[in-house]
Design a protein that fits this description.
This protein is mainly beta. The chain contains 1 helix and 25 strands. It is 12% helix and 33% strand.
């Protein structure tokens, strides 16, 4: 059952495809889990997790790689239409907010080497980590191998290819750091952290444009 006025899922003690669920979890009946193969403790929710309507949890072949899995910490909220891929491993901390239609993609396809047809190439996998208290805005996309630090903010519609340090705000496509969170709880971040982030992004952009010129 769902509160039809507010769209809030009712409390549930179980849901198809979920291996372990804490107390007072809310999962909308429309939430789907894509998994096959026999393995336990792959999809685990802590106490008070809420997953709203039309969210898709993707594990794929749970025996293909030991890193496959989704773990969501206490009191985390996944809003409507989310897509959470645990194919490369997905660790979400406590008190995290994941906005409507956000996508966390821990797996993809190799684009270099192999077959011209991308679908025939090997699957790439790398764990995504979202630390406690972070906020991923509506429609944001987080790619494989990224860590979103404690209390960090990913703006709506951002495409995140690099780690976001704790307490920082990232926005854009591709995402870049735009500022740190303000307040006594968030002292100025270590300059090395922000500098190294910009250096990595800059190196990636240079490589991208260099490869583009070579293709021409």
């Amino acid at each position: 059952m769902t509160d039809m006025l507010l769209g809030i899922p009712a409390f549930t003690a179980s849901h198809a495809g979920v291996d372990r669920m804490g107390a007072e979890c809310r999962i909308d009946p429309s939430v789907s889990v894509m998994r096959f193969g026999q393995r336990s403790d792959v999809l685990c929710l802590a106490d008070g997790v809420s997953i709203y309507a039309q969210t898709r949890l993707v594990l794929g072949d749970v025996v293909a790689d030991p890193c496959v899995g989704i773990r969501i910490g206490a009191r985390t909220i996944v809003n409507v239409g989310g897509y959470l891929s645990g194919e490369g491993g997905l660790e979400i901390g406590e008190d995290v907010l994941i906005g409507p239609h956000a996508k966390l993609l821990s797996a993809g396809h190799a684009i270099d080497g192999g077959d011209v047809v991308i679908a025939r190439n090997r699957i790439t996998r790398a764990r995504i980590v979202v630390e406690d208290g972070a906020w991923i805005g509506a429609g944001a996309i987080v790619l494989e191998g990224v860590t979103i630090g404690r209390g960090a903010v990913v703006a709506a519609g951002a495409l995140v290819r690099q780690d976001v340090p704790a307490g920082m705000v990232a926005a854009g496509m591709p995402a870049r750091l735009i500022r740190s969170r303000r307040g006594e709880a968030w002292p100025e971040p270590e300059p090395e952290a922000a500098a190294s982030w910009f250096q990595r992004v800059g190196a990636g952009l240079k490589s991208f444009f260099r490869e583009g010129r070579e293709v021409k």
